[in-house]
Amino acid sequence: MSATQDASAQIPVTVLTGYLGAGKTTLLNRILTENHGQRYAVIVNEFGEVGIDNDLLVESDEEIFEMNNGCICCTVRGDLIRTVQNLMKRKNAFDAIIVETTGVADPAPVAQTFFMDDDVRAKAKLDAVVAVVDARHVLKRLEDTEEAADQIAFADVILINKTDLVTAEDLAGVEARIRSINPYAVLHRSERCGIDIAKVLDRGAFDLDRVLSLDPHFLEHGHHADECGPDCDHDHDHHHHHGHEHGDGHECGPDCDHDHHHHDDPHSVKSISLKAGDLNPDMFFPWINQVTQVQGPNILRMKGILAFKDDPQRYVIQGVHMIVEGDHQRDWKADEPRESRLVFIGRDLNWDVLRDSFQACIAQ
Amino acid sequence: MPTVAPVEVDGFVVRTGFLKDTAFFASGEGEIVLSGQGEKRLRPHKAGLLAAEPQPDGKGLISSGDDGCIHLTRLDGSGELLAERPRKWIDLIAAGPSGAVAFASGRTAWVRFADGREKEFVHERAVGGLAFAPKGMRIAVSRYDGATLWWAGTEGEPVELGWKGAHLGISFSPDGKYLVTAMQENALHGWRLSDAQDMRMTGYPAKVKSFSWSAKGRYLATSGANAAILWPFFGKTGPMGQAPLQLGTRSDNLVAAVACHPKEEVVAVGYQDGMVLMCRFEDNAEVLLRRPGDGPVSSLAWDDAGTRLAFGTEAGEAGLISLED
Fold first, then answer.
1. What are the angstrom distances between the C-alpha of B112 and each of A195, A337, B152, B231, B276?
2. What is the tens place of the pLDDT at every residue in B214-247?
3. Which residue in the set B12, B106, B128 is minimally distant from A89, CB to CB?
4. Residues in chain B closer than 8 A to A83 (CB atoms)
């Protein structure tokens, strides 16, 4: 019933996240000044000290809207809905939209806006979430805040910036830590955000047909893609345990050298990769619905490529919190092992239960 | 037979309507076309135009843009800068009595009086819509979790009306007894102002973006479904417990804009595909006014006599439909 979903008519949207000082504005200015013939509308949360040189620049004050469907994680950015609608009154003036979020912004409502609001969804489509992290400070940020992990967990592309300011060993540690949170994002290293912008823009990270070509880690065994539906109006009577009180609330200075046991922190963001052969769709769909409804608040991103028994086609699926969307993608190739792979990135998830219940979906 | 006279407009028609006998068309690209005895093309804003509203006395058009300016454009083509909020996009405006203008950005709304004085109204959450009451210098502000009613001319505590969720477009019934908002979810909310009784009007497959009160305020016509949905507001309890009229039903297209005739119980209905129908309340008789075009109907308005209908679409098509030869 909603407006047409002609993909070619949808304006691509790139979301830039990252902590203050990581280099978001530097990256943004690089994108804007590079000679690529694209015209951008830029939505910023506040005009920063560094100027942004662009004709179409709008300041948008973060306004989180809860959707009245009883679902605590179904939030959208009301200000973005309005700004996108206003931009569409001048759709001849630009080709793409870049949203720069504040360092402390939760990326989920930003991403969900592009799936849950029908008007926005008809006009614009999320291309990718790009996180800029500062190689020097990211580990500290991950200690101190939840947002830093959320931004990394949510990202499709992660730019590790200021690599010239850390040693090779430190950089390796940073990369390992980022990978432990988000194993499927594409990582790039940069100094002063010097990167080929084609690696940042037009990624199609939420495009079911393109995910394969973007995701080397996934590619090894199969692949995955996504797009979520705006149909988050199922009965969401989930249990919600947001872990905002971090148990061991010790505060460390910048020179703190105690061992922080990241991986043992039950509240830290982790990922799990589930693997199987053919699945039974009659088991899988009720299971994924149940998992995302009950654990949606704690699931940041989810992606999967699935093989269903007696189904010649690959099925691709993706999710953000409780929003899940999937579709058949293409036939399995003859030389391709029929393998189902599903990745969850989340916080406070019971990984063992998830793994065991997934196993129950394997086709007999 | 109705005749359609096209008017050339340079982009998305944000608002069309009439200033006395002169039709106006305001486009998102920034152009205002005044089409009366002759045609005037004006461009008061530095770039895009986000909203436009005719003054109730028909003497001028208030517009706002992404340059942060609020302009008055008069029928003779002269203009005046009324207010400016540098770097803000002003997309909400309302034209009130005695030359008063309301506008909003973020969580703040302002009323500017004809003498240039301004009064500021601050809310805890984002403003979603503005409407002047039919009588008195009173303004209603829809916001997150409800609406706030302010007396603009005097000091005093506002009246707060609560309902969870984001409230966007807002409108008083012509008799001032009801206040209705369109919500972020696919529903309308209403309050009977005498006792703040809540009214819920749901069942829409899409957001309600256009509403229009029928002659004497008997019905509120709305977009957002595959028919124009008209809620009855006569009687003591308004639409509560009543089924709405559904006019101009189409199986494959949503209604994008509505405009009730100023005198008769007839509504003009614009659809996603650009078609415009005229439907009679009594028997749902339909007259085709415009065939489908290139984009959704974005604005519809009758002249005071009810003989001409101005329309505009998101694709920049616009024109005047005359019911008389």
1. 49, 69, 9, 33, 36
2. 999 999 999 999 999 999 999 888 898 889 999 9
3. B12
4. 89
